[in-house]
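I am writing to request your help with a piece of structural work I have in hand. I am sending you one protein, given as its amino acid sequence and as whole-number tokens for its backbone shapes. Kindly check, if you would, that the fold set down in the tokens agrees with what the sequence suggests. You will find the record immediately after this paragraph:
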Amino acid sequence: MLSYRNQFDHALINRYLIKPLLDELQKSTVQIEGICRDEQYQQLLHQTDPNSEFERVVLHEIYHGGYKLPDTAQELIPESNCKPDFLYKEDGIAVFCDGSVHDSPEKRKQDQIERDNLKHNTSYHIFALRHDEDWRTELTKLASL
């Protein structure tokens, strides 16, 4: 509290008056206001692609597995003109849920172009889950990132 900048006021400052307030603050807790996990899950369910059952299955597994929920779903990233299925914005992770629609060679090529754009134009890490692979094990890797 006493510093070079306020040295002319040192005689007026009683730094011991603040001690009870600091002691009280030390015992306090912080409660973050916002939506609860259940509400966030429901919100994400409504944001998923209505044509993708696999997205909802993956989200269900994330939720019931106790993993951190994504921040958003189906959000366009303008820098890469790409819309990942789920985004973990703070962690910089873009999750793609590739259902059977992504099996055709044309769709795989289009997916690769979009993901390359995302990789080169943003700082997001790409995390792809395929319906025909062991995607549940991959989810555990996502949780560790």
